[in-house]
Amino acid sequence: MSVSWCIAKYKEYEKDVAIEEIDGLQLVKKLAKNMEEMFHKKSEAVRRLVEAAEDAYLKHEFDADLQYEYFNAVLINERDEEGNYLELGKEFILVPNDHFNNLPVNISLSDVQVPTNMYNKDPAIVNGVYWSESLNKVFVDNFDRDPSLIWQYFGSAKGFFRQYPGIKWEPDENGVIAFDCRNRKWYIQAATSPKDVVILVDVSGSMKGLRLTIAKQTVSSILDTLGDDDFFNIIAYNEELHYVEPCLNGTLVQADRTNKEHFREHLDKLFAKGIGMLDIALNEAFNMLNEFNHTGQGSICSQAIMLITDGAVDTYDTIFAKYNWPDRKVRIFTYLIGREAAFADNLKWMACANKGFFTQISTLADVQENVMEYLHVLSRPKVIDQEHDVVWTEAYIDSTLADDQGLVLMTTVAMPVFSKQNETRSKGILLGVVGTDVPVKELLKAIPKYKPIFPAKINVWLHLRISAHLSML
């Protein structure tokens, strides 16, 4: 295939070649417009869910004796040995749907997942499931308006997760479903503002045995609630300070997955001995938060100190007066480990005097729910101000809708749901977070597409020539 032959062939078709000039600015404007319309459509779907949820809660009166059979996502379609449906496991029609990668779903109803460590018929759960049932109509309406929508859901501050379309959830090999919606990035980002957190862990001699085990699990659960917008560090203390990661002495790090897992590995190395000197730990924590805030590298928003201990012999008011009063910019959250309450009053005072929260954790089973309380406190300013900010998470990998090409990149749009009851508005009660997932490939559809500049017959000819040339190599 000579060069002269190629030139001759090109001239033969030259009259059919057209060059189109594309205005780059107009291309970008069109892309921006397409993206804006798509973002608006997804945000409006979520906003409709927020309005429906807040209205439903406003009309609901809590009933501690409420009996309500709901569709539990783990128990649906399950039968006992006699062939009868289990309680909360009624028949729930599931049909494979190609829009959801042929997963069996129910596009008429949502169902509810409750974390394994929670009681399915707890009055708080049953009441929440009951009033949130009204979201079914909005789920279906949203899907009718925008058929490109996939999962829509409401994550309750009480722990249950209402998902549309309804789907069957399967426990792992140990019969456990570890999923808790309140630990998900979309929930954390929508419910709270970015935060800088210093975790203080008492490793004095009195913390030996089960208490230290509970303390480590408490720290791990706190890490679960931190997202990429947050910064943290962990200090263990007795008569001396021990940074869990010595290489990160005196600073905070981003709470991404890698850093959190790294710190978890170091938690196992902690052991209890000596005397607990909380004063030096508090001084270190306040100084670190103050210095890090001045660097401009942190969240530039909320700041908190998490204190995990089996007691405090003093209120340390002089330290708080020096660093935190009168503005109280740093919230203090205190976690009393163990069943004894001899020093509970001092820890309660510290939390209340610094706009925080006190809780007691007696067993490993208590950890999850008690840790979650601090999120409600940090969400109060947003709730009181009724800030319904729309949050878009960073892209993440989702395996639920994995297709032939592998795992799917996903982002989530979410908004917080608040109580609008007049008697509770000043307390700032977060009801939960609603959201919907958006595949990244859906975003890419907004990019304008242009046809090839060559006529079809030239494209075919070029393809044949290139293929023939490659076959001779």
UniProtKB/TrEMBL annotation:
Family: Belongs to the calcium channel subunit alpha-2/delta family.
Pfam families documented for this protein: VWA_3, VWA_N
Membrane topology annotation: Single-pass type I membrane protein
GO cellular component: a single term: voltage-gated calcium channel complex
GO molecular function, one term: voltage-gated calcium channel activity
InterPro entries per record: Ca_channel_alpha-2/delta (IPR051173), VWA_N (IPR013608), VWF_A (IPR002035), vWFA_dom_sf (IPR036465)
Organism: Phasianus colchicus (Common pheasant)
Protein name: Calcium voltage-gated channel auxiliary subunit alpha2delta 3
VWFA domain: residues covered: 196-378
Compartments it resides in: Membrane
Annotated coiled-coil segments of the chain: none
Keywords (A to Z) from UniProt: Calcium, Calcium channel, Calcium transport, Glycoprotein, Ion channel, Ion transport, Membrane, Signal, Transmembrane, Transmembrane helix, Transport, Voltage-gated channel
